[in-house]
Amino acid sequence: MSFTHLTWRQRYQIDKDLKLGLPMAVIAHRIGVHRSTVYRELERGRDAGGCYTAAGADERARARVRQSAANHPTKSAALWRRAERWIRRDLSPDEVAGRLELLSGHACVSVPAIYARIRRDEVSCGDLHEHLRRAPKRWVVRPTTGGLPKNRPSIRQRPKAVYARRTLGHWEADTMLGNHSHPARVLIAVERKSRFTMLAKLPSGKALPTGRALARGLEHFKVTSITFDNGVEFANYARVCQQLNCQAYFAQPYRAYQRGTCENTVGLIRQYLPKHRSLRKLTDAQLRRIEHRLNHRPRKCLGYLTPYEVSFNKTPVAIRT
Fold it and tell me: Where are the beta strands (DSSP E) in the chain?
């Protein structure tokens, strides 16, 4: 299927017809597109005040084009032929990407791009996938029961200063299950700069007790923002953020790397609460002990300071037991 982007002339016509109060279907017919295209254009082209102008919408569209991955330089056919030849010699995509970088002196192609090439080859009845030692991980979209507001703030709206981890107060939140034999789970909140961790046991994944536990656990800390997972247990996020006087953001679905600090902390907690263990008999004392171990554990990313020392600006001392 081929498509074209709206032109300046079409955006000018939309701007003009909107001022005349014409219906969307009429505007779409006059510029030769489907009315859903007009709705999308209005949604993406409005300024911060909700006003649509042809000049502003066209400039925002040009900015999106400049940032689009589709405009990155394409790889040459010779590069792909070499990569495919090495894959047929049973080299992994990681080995192929690393070898190409070694020979050229710069990164030529990424590992995900090679996997994407293999998948396209498989769809066209090619044999590249037969040379992989293991099948690439497939993302399975699981059905959801819903419950989260559709207009929840996206992580794309989060200020870029949060990524720099220069100030305290920006948290990530998620929940962790045991062996699925019982609905009990652990609520995890991690501060992005210090990696300071707050844990709480939840009887289930219902939104109301999750929100109460999160607000109670963070009420004595500085909280500027919280980045949530898209689980329905965080459907009560608005009340939590109102109580803590902070801003909420939600990671994109199936993009766990956007909450990398929290995901890494889950991996550390699994040392004490492995997946095969039920959380039904987990006590508050056991959870406080795990929390204490995490917050007084030296981290390489912190220059081997502990989260407690960074969070409360303490002088390094002997490791607490």
Answer: 170-177, 185-191, 197-202, 225-228, 247-250
The three-state secondary structure class of 40 is: helix
Contacts of 51 (CB under 8 A, 6+ apart): none
155-312: which CATH topology? Nucleotidyltransferase; domain 5 (3.30.420)
Type of residue found at 156: R
Q: What is residue 69's predicted lDDT score, i.e. its pLDDT? A: 58
* Helix or strand run (H / E) with residue 55: helix 54-67
pLDDT tens column, 224-273: 999 999 888 999 999 999 999 999 999 988 888 899 999 999 999 999 99
User: Residue 182's Cα: distance from chain center in Å?
Assistant: 28
DSSP, collapsed to helix, strand or coil, labels residue 51 as: coil
Please enumerate in sequence order all residues whose Cβ is within 8 A of that of 226, keeping only pairs 6 or more positions apart, or say none.
Answer: 170, 171, 172, 173, 189, 214, 237, 240, 241, 244, 246, 247, 248, 249
